[in-house]
């Protein structure tokens, strides 16, 4: 088994870290305070090609394979201290663009992918509703076919990127009341400029504040039938096959964050002197750092196993659920450790460590909560539900 990365991947890693450190970090604290996506930083990332890494070159992207993208996104998380910017990019890639790459018609790909790849269009994933979070099949948004159009009515909430998005990848109920649950949903790609689409509110949140989050209303929105993604009634299958990306690659950047914060903690353990000696000589501090490293390496293995499976063209529901669970929970535990290890400097806004903790909080919720991932793992092992 070969755990090394290629020379090209190593070069990508170096260049992304250098780029992120020099170009993206100055605005990080201010973007968090204002809860605003820094559009200049977005454009710089687009200029480097990040917004199109998984998009085939034929549609203006880089056509990178999943393992190479994992290396690049890990590097972005390592170099960039604006975790909200990185999360906004990841939502764009894994919750919108990749659906079009996998399931779009040639016409849809031609229409949307070049703009998503060059970052001039921002993508969002509008799934969750006020009454339907973990229970995806409980969604109420309905789409009724009228001639060559579908008329959408419904509310999607907690949607990352919604206030700034140009394209919504969304799901609606098309089956009648007697349709079997899993055949009741259909996926659509909806342009924000269609009449009947509006972002009715923005949400203020604890972390990832520079990813703007909003509520999307579809009020008699007439979506051309050409914007149906996959077949009518196949939305849930499409969702369950593509959610692998969100549950694995979207979390690659968190590995980079854990690595960066670990470096900061090691430096602090060396530099901070109490009782006449560095705090790192205390076993309680040393072991905390060792535990952070163990969590990081195990989470990294889970990520690359899932990314490798995706590179081999396989579905990876078990590996991606494990990766999502392992990375998000490890990330949160390690950011709590980082706060404790920095004492008051961990708690005060000025030093940036508390922001890392706030940014880690959402990872065990979005993309399916930890409880839902554990349920998926148990079901895939054959445990009755
Ligand atoms: C930062 C962030 C970004 C997000 N971005 C998006 C986005 O871009 N697009 C989008 O569509 N949504 C997004 N969401 C919404 C997210 O997908 C939902 O919050 C998530 O699916 C959980 O739904 P809920 O909040 O309604 O919680 P609920 O489903 O109400 O769950 C509440 C609690 O009950 C538990 N629970 C529920 N059902 C079960 C069960 N069967 N077994 C065990 N426990 C259960 C949950 O695990 C949780 O602890 C985002 C959320 C966050 C926090």
Explain the overall architecture.
- Helix 10 runs antiparallel to helix 13.
- This protein is of the alpha+beta class.
- It has three domains: 7-121, Butyryl-Coa Dehydrogenase, subunit A, domain 1, CATH 1.10.540; 124-233, Butyryl-CoA Dehydrogenase, subunit A, domain 2 (Beta Barrel); 239-380, Butyryl-CoA Dehydrogenase, subunit A, domain 3, CATH 1.20.140.10.
- 50% of the residues lie in helices and 16% in strands.
- The longest helix has 29 residues, at 283-311.
- The strands form three sheets. It has a four-stranded mixed beta sheet. A four-stranded antiparallel beta sheet has the order 2-3-7-6, with no helix packed on it.
- The site of flavin-adenine dinucleotide has 20 residues, from helix 5, strand 1, strand 3 and helix 13.
- Residues 91, 95, 125-128, 133-134, 158-160, 208, 362, 365-366, 368-369, 371-372, 375 line the site of flavin-adenine dinucleotide.
Set out the fold topology.
Layout: H1 7-23, H2 28-34, H3 39-48, H4 66-79, H5 83-103, H6 106-117, E1 123-126, E2 142-146, E3 149-160, E4 167-173, E5 185-191, E6 197-203, E7 213-224, E8 228-229, H7 235-248, H8 252-271, E9 273-274, E10 277-278, H9 283-311, H10 317-341, H11 344-347, H12 353-361, H13 370-380
Parallel strand pairs: 1-4
Antiparallel strand pairs: 2-3, 3-7, 4-5, 5-8, 6-7, 9-10
Flavin-adenine dinucleotide is lined by residues 91, 95, 125-128, 133-134, 158-160, 208, 362, 365-366, 368-369, 371-372, 375.
